[in-house]
Design goal:
Blueprint lengths: L2 E4 L10 H8 L20 H6 L7 E7 L17 H4 L4 E3 L6 E3 L3 H4 L5 E7 L6 H10 L21 H9 L12 E4 L26 E2 L10 E3 L3 E3 L25 H17 L6 H19 L1 H7 L6 H7 L3 H15 L3 E5 L12 H27 L5 E7 L2 E2 L17 E2 L3 E6 L7 E3 L1 E2 L6 E3 L4 H11 L6 E4 L5 E3 L11
Parallel strand pairs: 2-10, 2-11, 5-15, 6-7, 6-10
Antiparallel strand pairs: 1-18, 3-4, 5-14, 8-9, 11-14, 12-13, 16-17, 18-19
Helix pairs in contact: 5-13, 9-11, 11-12
Length: 492
């Protein structure tokens, strides 16, 4: 059993472990929502009293898989040698003294709403290690770590922790899970699934709800259909369609099969007399009803069916995978989901080893700038920005020096670099027009206020009101910390 608790005298378990594990292993309709079971026991009244001030009801974690170059975005070095500074020029933002890339003009106009941490750092220059660090908030790699596949010993993702910790605090009225990841899982072009995005050692039944709205493609990158590209400028021939996942019963899911699954749950119901507490047993009914309601709830369908939004809304966000994904995230947090991770870019789209400047200028920055700006405006106009923390990060930054891999690319780019990256924050109590930390004159390493994945994760957890002393417990009742660092100082 997994439960979250305040690290004071341990709270007794109200559900026998064997029965709870049996219940948690059943996915009622095969919709990836079996994590919504009664195993998720969260903060009680004692924990609530010890919780930090909650600055946000929800969080949208925008993940730029592949690694955004700090020199080309939020930590430009215009006075560095031409082998470092690159082709782009900085422009002034609405905030005096803060400059960002000329190809992010809409975000520049909204600098009073966001802050930057320019000193995020970790030791990894390899994609899978970087993903694991920034998706779990843990710098140290877990035992038996594999860069080629998720392992059951991986650390739980930030989304997993947030889901368990905030499950009972959902601020919406709809039957939605507490966390979601969209529009797809992170998959490498070779087909291997990136580690760090799942529940890991907490158990796969606690995996976040993955909304598969964007089918994986091993050849195309960026925001299809309007801004797709291939890193090596090859013809991609991509004809994917972004669509909300069907919440109707699958064709093969006959009434008999559903009845059989419900009969299994009925059998568990009969076993509930063996549970220690009737109140906890009653939760099974609630979670079963949530599973069925997810299929029937019109609000849920509306939140996911973003490609049918009105023309004005789609034009503001962009009629592409980036715009639709952030619009879906906005609708989900408005409906009560506590954390939405948005993977902007299939197949490590931001991995700009070559042809970096045309691909950033023409394919990656325009849909990102538009969609994030629309998200900020939407949340601010609706009064939800103060309640919604927005963060943007990748698995690492890019090397200070430009390089050209002539065997694969015609034009220069930058390689992987864990030494520094800039992380973007907005909403949720963040002080806008603010910069935390700094890097050296070539953007290689932090020179002021270095921050680590642990500080990044702690910032999200604190904003959601998770106590710094909270732990989760495994099947052997061993406690596991949630916080491994302090929140970023001066950000809020």
């Amino acid at each position: 059993m997994r439960r979250l608790e305040h690290h004071l005298p341990a709270h007794p378990s109200h559900i026998s472990r064997r029965t709870a594990i049996q219940a948690g292993s059943i996915g009622l309709l095969g919709l990836g929502i079996n994590h919504l079971d009664a195993l998720r026991a969260v903060a009680d009244s004692e924990e609530s009293k010890a919780a930090p001030p909650q600055t946000a009801q929800s969080c949208i974690y925008i993940f730029l898989s592949g690694g955004l170059g700090q020199h080309e975005s939020f930590d430009m070095k215009p006075d560095a040698p031409d082998t470092v500074r690159g082709e782009f020029q900085p422009i002034a933002t609405r905030t005096t003294g803060i400059q960002i890339c000329e190809h992010l003009p809409m975000l520049a106009q909204r600098s009073h709403l966001w802050a930057l941490c320019r000193s995020m750092t970790h030791p990894y220059n390899e994609h899978s290690q970087g993903h694991h660090a920034m998706l779990t908030g843990r710098t140290e790699m877990p035992p038996n770590f594999s860069g080629n596949q998720p392992m059951p010993t991986d650390w739980p993702s930030i989304a997993t922790i947030a889901g368990v910790a905030t499950c009972s605090r959902s601020h919406g009225q709809n039957n939605l899970p507490p966390v979601a990841v969209l529009p797809e899982r992170l998959v490498h072009r070779s087909g291997h699934v990136i580690p760090g995005q799942f529940a890991g050692e907490m158990g796969e039944r606690f995996d976040p709800w993955f909304i598969e709205a964007s089918p994986f493609s091993s050849v195309s990158y960026g925001a299809y259909p309007t801004h797709q590209f291939h890193h090596a400028d090859k013809d991609n021939g991509d004809e994917r369609v972004f669509q909300a996942p069907s919440l109707t019963l699958p064709h093969e899911m006959t009434n008999l099969r559903v009845d059989n699954r419900l009969n299994i749950l009925d059998e568990l119901d009969r076993q509930r007399r063996h549970l220690d507490a009737h109140a906890a047993a009653a939760d099974f009914d609630r979670y079963r009803q949530q599973a069925i309601s997810l299929v029937c709830d019109g609000h849920v369908r509306q939140a996911l069916d973003v490609t049918r939004a009105d023309d004005k809304t789609q034009d503001r966000y962009g009629r592409n995978a980036f715009g639709w994904s952030l619009l879906m995230a906005r609708r989900l947090v408005s409906a009560g989901v506590n954390l939405v991770q948005v993977n902007l870019g299939n197949n490590e789209a931001w991995d700009t080893h070559g042809n970096a400047f045309p691909h950033l200028k023409n394919n990656l920055f325009p849909p990102t700038d538009r969609a994030v700006a629309a998200l900020l405006d939407d949340l601010q106009e609706s009064g939800l920005l103060d309640q919604t923390l927005i963060v943007i990060a990748g698995e690492f930054g890019r090397t200070p020096k430009l390089s050209t891999l002539s065997s694969s690319y015609k034009l220069p780019g930058r390689d992987h670099w864990g030494g520094s990256q800039t992380v973007f924050f907005a909403g949720g109590g963040v002080r806008g027009g603010n910069v935390i930390g700094a890097t050296d004159n070539i953007g290689a390493y932090p020179t002021d206020q270095p921050q680590h994945p642990e500080n990044f994760a702690a910032t999200i957890y604190r904003s959601l009101g998770i106590p710094s002393t909270a732990v989760w417990r495994d099947e052997l009742d061993r406690p596991h910390h949630i916080y491994y660092g302090d929140p970023i100082e001066g950000l809020m």
